């Protein structure tokens, strides 16, 4: 399963904002329209659309870490409900880590997750992310050293 991260453009913007998680997952990630709006006021944020071949399947948002110049943050990650459970989330996560290393020389990648989000926690820990013990705005912080 391989995926590609592509910029948000005039062509794919509407489609990216229409991607949705399952109703019971709505507390786990902000709507993509909100994430893209945030990039207007956080100019260092980088949104990317996740493609499997030519199919738009998800969304990722990156931001540098304020307190760690050698680290980079994955702020949002989502796979549309129609495409979940096929390995695309894991592939998108690996591609996101590769992006942080390639584009930002990241030596560690940080993310945070709602404690009740068992699926994402399982995915992250099996992909080498370790809980740091820190809680950020009620979310469990996890870091992967490169
Ligand atoms: C989390 C999310 C990105 C995963 O995407 P996905 O395409 O469904 O994930 P995958 O098919 O690649 O499966 C990833 C792993 O999840 C894990 N997983 C699946 N269901 C699980 C469960 N109930 N409990 C624990 N782990 C689970 C498995 O380890 C699976 O990996 P494996 O089958 O390769 O061993 C997707 O479910 C999503 O968008 N959720 C809503 C938004 C969200 O929670 N984003 C994360 C915010 S931090």
From TrEMBL:
Keywords: Transferase. It comes from the Bacteria. Signal peptide: none annotated. SUPFAM superfamilies: Acyl-CoA N-acyltransferases (Nat). This is Putative GCN5-related N-acetyltransferase. Residues 3-146 form the N-acetyltransferase domain. InterPro entries: Acyl_CoA_acyltransferase, GNAT_dom, Sper_AcTfrase_N.
């Amino acid at each position: 399963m391989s995926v590609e991260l592509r910029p948000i453009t005039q062509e794919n913007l509407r489609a990216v904002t229409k991607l949705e998680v399952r109703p019971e997952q709505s507390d786990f990630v902000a709507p993509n329209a909100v994430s893209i709006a945030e990039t207007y006021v956080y100019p260092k944020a980088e949104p990317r659309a996740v493609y499997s071949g030519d199919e738009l399947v998800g969304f990722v948002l990156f931001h540098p870490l304020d307190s760690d110049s050698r680290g980079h943050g994955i702020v949002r990650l989502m796979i549309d409900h129609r495409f979940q459970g096929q390995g695309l989330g894991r592939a998108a996560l690996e591609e996101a880590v590769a992006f942080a290393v390639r584009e930002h020389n990241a030596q560690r990648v940080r993310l945070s997750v709602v404690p009740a989000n068992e699926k994402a926690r399982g995915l992250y820990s099996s992909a080498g992310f370790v809980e740091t013990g820190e809680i950020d705005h009620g979310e469990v912080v996890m870091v992967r050293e490169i």
